[in-house]
Amino acid sequence: MSEKLVIDLHKVREQETLKIRCSYKHHPENKGFDALLEKISFALICRKCEAAPCVKACPREALEKVPIEGSDESVLKRANMRCTGCGTCAIACPFGTIYTELIPFVSSVCDVCRGRLAPGEKPLCVQTSDGSIEYKEVTLEGDFVEVFDDIVVNVPAGTLWQPLLGEIGTS
User: What is the DSSP string of 104-167?
Assistant: First the structure.
């Protein structure tokens, strides 16, 4: 079993100001972690329809279902330069779970600091997170949901994870 990034969404939410830093070279400051939270939020609310009416409805072909490596599932991605924010995908979604602000852009990725850590060193987001993010071996049972290969989210039983839309600039 390998170590994974374990994020407690409720602890992250409770932090008044996120002082979590990220060392991802393409997203200095906190941008890498913000992008990761966006992807996690969407991965937890998207129903991953087989037919994907949102993809078919997009007039700019900005949405794509991308297979998750090592899984028979796929995740919805938005092409950075094609999306105009028209909202057609949101209208086409039969579950009402698409908010154009939440669909992650293709360009943002968390690599869990792979190749940049010294032996025993933890990713920068773990070091600066006040305990809301850990890097450890975890058994996927109970409250733990694996949203990406190396990223696990702790969603306590009985709670429905819904992103706080007001927090990310939507109404």
Answer: PBTT----TTTTS--TTPPPHHHHTSTTSEEEE-----TTEEEEETTEEEE--TT------GGG
